[in-house]
Amino acid sequence: MNRILFLIFLSLCVTDLAYSENADAADTAFTEAASDFFSGKGAQLGIPAVAFQATEDGGTYTVTLQILAVMTALTLLPSIVMMMTAFTRIIIVFAILRQALGLQQTPSNQILIGLALFLSIFIMQPVLREANEIGLQPYLAEEISPLEAVKAASDPFHRFMLAQTREDDLALFLKISESEKPQTQRDVDFFILAPAFVTSELKTAFQIGFLLFIPFLIIDLVVASVLMSMGMMMLSPTIISLPFKLMLFILVDGWAMVIGSLAGSFGM
């Protein structure tokens, strides 16, 4: 890198020398710059190296490395949101509801994802608040180390995930991993709890979606039977049943009912 900088500087000096009226002064300036470079003063042009700060209790990373770790963790944020919160259950239920209504792209994916995201934040508020109080704030006050902050902030998520995980799913992954049965809930390893939690969320989401699908399926069957009896076999039952399904969904205040049921399924 220093060689490249020196070559660039050399080309600029040569150009300046060609257009300078005083060639001797330009030659003197070039000689002094080259001398400064080879004497070590030119090394200051580079990016300063990252240092490791050692303390009596061990080692702590510099701010530069901490920022690098945070930026790396941001790339995993979508996976964390989907796999460790209520987002998975909510978005699957919304997708099944849209399919049951017979609406292909309404509401759009962006609207469903945004609604699921904010509803997940609403449901996860107690967990996020506790993680902030016992993990983030002490770290910002420089009372605990980064690793201790991560461990403290992960405890509320661990309890939330464990409360929503079925014992059968947890036992399944313990059997697959050939791990011993934990003595307490805190002893459950995260890498076993995470897939068990996601599996339980998928099962719960499909159960809720099945219950939502039944009334709209009945409407489709009734409309198809009426059209069949009238001899209108060429007319799509979906076109006729869609207004009735929308009317039923509006009359029962469907969005409030679905969102309330989802929030209640997490114990709120």
Radius of gyration: 32 Å
Strand content: under 5%
Q: Can you tell me the overall shape?
A: elongated
Class inferred from helices and paired strands: mainly alpha
Summarize the biggest pleated sheet. 2 strands, antiparallel
The run of helices and strands is: HHEEHHHHHHHHHH
Distance between the termini: 59 Å
Please report the number of helical segments: 12
Beta strand count: 2
Mean pLDDT: 76
Oligomer: single chain
Uncertain residue segments:
1-23, 40-49
How are strands sequenced across the largest beta sheet?
1-2
Q: Name the helicity range.
A: over 70%
Please name the defining characteristics of this protein:
268 residues; mainly alpha; two-stranded antiparallel ribbon; 12 helices; disordered N terminus
Describe the structure.
The structure is a single chain. The protein has 268 residues and is an all-alpha fold. It is built from 12 helices and 2 strands; from the N terminus they run H-H-E-E-H-H-H-H-H-H-H-H-H-H. The chain has helices spanning 2-19, 23-38, 63-74, 77-84, 87-101, 109-123, 125-140, 146-163, 167-176, 190-229, 237-251, 254-265, and strands spanning 53-55, 58-60. Strands 1-2 form a two-stranded antiparallel sheet. A hairpin with a 2-residue loop joins strand 1 and strand 2 (58-60). It is elongated, with a radius of gyration of 32 Å. The two termini are 59 Å apart.
